[in-house]
Specification:
Chain lengths: ~180, ~500
């Protein structure tokens, strides 16, 4: 009995010590949470959050310098995931109001200058020099970068309208939170 | 053969089938305009093939299926295409949807039909599958799943039984009942064609026991075919749900999130069988369906063969209007149907009926707090725990509700129906499933964006490297060439 206790205690102390040393020796320089957060962000480098790219945004998030609702293309899903990861309470009420948008190129005005094509960080715009450009709507996430690049002002951002295939039942209004329950 | 296995849960609503079940199927006069919606099926939205002003004949294809999981549409009558525009859909949301608007010319003149297949049992299954797809046939029990896709499941799964669904378990609705009574031979023929296509021997026609006439007529019609058995199933809602019916009749339970075909059974509705018969034997596409118009608020309830696209207002008018203003105008049955957003919404391929409910037929009571009685758990046919799921969803804990398998909810409404506190349970689950699906879609889009952004960076980087390499090569070439010229000049 005593032999077992002593040997296990010794083993514990030695292994624990080793782990302690290893954590000092092999310490990772950067914040691991930063990497994890970066993986959670869309990674489209759109810059809508105000940071240069997703890596910078992740760094700010990890330091707690940016709100979890900073990422418009990520939407509610990313905000919730970030809040869970960082253990903060996300104020999602205001965030959900933002309707997803997609860019649209006015065919009549497009001159095929390739500027928007070169600006789009996710290759959601197709086209060739002096050819009409078009937006791939299922990739475009409405970051609006192409808007400023267009010298013809031919690009607009339009809200994605709800259709019968994207609609779903609303959450039932809590009709009764009666006094008996509240008390 | 044992055909009565125990099933979980279920409820016993008041059926009120007597309002319409003895009214034979009547042809329906053409409405002033027909609105053929482009999304009448599960899958990709159909692409219109006609132009405004074009004259079409009855049965002409007016929209094509852009994918295998889709369905084409055909002109329900001859006439002129007046518009292709957004029009109120028979959908719970009240949103509009693209529709081909046809103004009938009154001649009801047939176009060129597909050639009838004289011997459907002598042709390979693919010929029948192609025909069913061309005819725009979808599951007419209300699920509107493309029938051709379902008939192709014989290639993917090891099947042994075709289960023909004549349960029609929604209260009020009598369309399938009438189809079985009046088109028994055609339904049996359609079922045999489908069984041949699926490569199965056995056909079971399951009819709920509250339709004794249909059971009798179908038994007689199937008598000459020993591989067909007609069975009466117990009067229990939602027995008509495919997986549930399969379990009740064959004793096989479909695993969660799997297809019915994985247990060797394919379920088809009786009205779908009739459409298959018409498409194969006569080359007629799905351009009309039997619709029940009923409810105590309607003057003359009945069953009608209605051209697809007929506005509901025309149905109500044809039935003599209302005896009293209905409290609810329901599209489909009262258990799983929804309130029609507008009477102008048209009949779709999946419309089984219109129920105009008077206020004395409805129960509207204020929602009360949950008393945790557990009734909802007892009646859930899937074996879920509605009480817990609803509590989580109320607190926006959707992921946790998903772990309790809210995604397996079939929205049959048994829990809401039985809840003594009148909590709209099924709406909570519909909301949660919609919200989870939308969030998942966004997640997938974000993943795609990430891949696209990374691919772009890589592409630009490669292009840059190539440019630099080319530049370096040019320089090297120039350097190599330079001394030669110097020497030459000396």
């Amino acid at each position: 009995m005593s032999l077992a206790v002593i040997s296990l205690t010794l083993l514990g102390i030695i292994l624990g010590g080793l782990l302690g040393i290893a954590s000092q020796w092999l310490a990772v320089e950067e914040d691991p949470i930063e990497k994890e957060i970066q993986a959670m962000l869309p990674g489209s480098q759109c810059g809508q959050c105000g940071f240069v790219g997703c890596a910078q945004a992740a760094a700010a998030l990890a330091k707690g310098e940016a709100p979890v609702t900073l990422c418009p293309p990520g939407g509610k899903a990313v905000a919730e995931a970030l809040a869970k990861k960082l253990g903060v309470q996300a104020d999602l009420d205001g965030h959900t109001e933002q309707v997803p948008q997609v860019a649209r190129i006015n065919e009549a005005e497009c001159i095929g200058c390739m500027r928007c094509f070169n600006t789009c960080t996710v290759d959601a715009i197709i086209g060739a020099p002096k050819q009409l450009h078009a937006v791939l709507t299922d990739i475009c996430h409405g970051c609006g970068k192409c808007l400023t690049s267009c010298q013809m002002d031919a690009i607009t951002l339009n809200p994605v309208l709800q259709t019968t295939s994207t609609w779903y039942w609303p959450k039932p209004e809590p009709k009764v939170i009666s006094k008996e329950v509240a008390a | 053969m044992k055909t009565n296995y125990p099933i979980r849960g279920g409820v016993h609503p008041l059926y009120r089938k007597e309002l319409a079940c003895n009214q034979s199927i009547q042809p329906f006069p053409l409405a002033e305009r027909l609105y053929v919606h482009l999304q009448q099926h599960v899958g990709a939205i159909a692409v219109p093939l006609v132009e405004v002003g074009q004259h079409v004949k009855k049965g002409d294809r007016i929209a094509m299926a852009p994918a295998s999981m889709s369905s084409p549409l055909h002109a329900p009558t001859s006439g002129i295409v007046r518009a292709i525009e957004d029009f109120t859909a028979a959908h719970a949301s009240g949103l509009s949807q693209m529709a081909v608007v046809i103004e009938p010319d009154g001649k009801d003149e047939w176009g060129e039909l597909l050639a009838p297949i004289a011997d459907p049992f002598g042709v390979p299954p693919d010929v029948i599958i192609a025909r069913v797809a061309e005819a725009g046939i979808v599951g007419q029990g209300g699920a509107v799943f493309p029938t051709a896709v379902k008939l192709g499941m014989g290639k993917q799964y090891k099947l042994d039984t075709l289960l023909l669904n004549g349960a029609e378990c929604e209260p009020y609705i009598t369309a399938d009942d009438r189809v079985m009574r009046e088109y028994a031979a055609e339904v049996v023929d359609g079922a045999r064609i489908m069984a041949h296509t699926l490569g199965v021997q056995k056909i079971i026609i399951a009819i709920k026991k509250n339709k004794p006439e249909a059971i009798e007529i179908m038994t007689a019609a199937a008598a000459e075919y020993p591989q067909i058995s007609v069975v009466g199933v117990k009067i229990q809602y939602p027995i008509g749900y495919a997986q549930y019916l399969t379990q009740a009749v064959t004793g096989r339970e479909t695993p969660a999130g799997r297809r019915n075909a994985e247990v060797g059974v394919v379920v088809q509705n009786v009205s779908t069988a009739l459409s298959v018969h018409r498409a194969v034997r006569h080359g007629i596409p799905l351009i009309s369906r039997v619709v029940t118009v009923t409810g105590t608020a309607i003057r003359n309830a009945g069953n009608f063969e209605v051209p697809i696209g007929t506005p509901v207002s025309a149905l109500i008018e044809h039935c003599g209007g209302y005896v009293q203003q209905p409290r609810f105008l329901v599209n489909g049955g009262p258990m799983m149907g929804f309130l029609l957003p507008s009477e102008s919404a048209p009949v779709l391929k999946g419309s089984v009926g219109i129920v105009a409910m008077a206020s004395e037929e409805t129960v509207e009571k204020a929602e009360k707090p949950c008393i945790r009685c557990g009734s909802c758990m007892e009646v859930c046919p899937i074996g879920l725990s509605p009480v817990d799921m609803a509590a989580l969803i109320r607190k926006d804990r959707l992921e946790e509700a998903a772990r309790l398998a809210v995604g397996d909810c079939i929205a049959c409404g048994s829990c809401s129906w039985t809840c003594p506190s009148h909590i709209p349970l099924v709406q909570y689950f519909n909301y949660a499933n919609g919200a989870l699906w939308t969030a998942d879609k966004l997640r997938r889009k974000n993943d795609k964006l990430k891949t696209m952004a990374e691919a772009r960076v890589l592409r630009l980087e490669t292009a840059k490297q190539e440019r630099l390499a080319a530049q370096a090569a040019r320089k090297a070439k120039a350097a190599a060439a330079a001394p030669v010229t110097e020497e030459a000049s000396e």
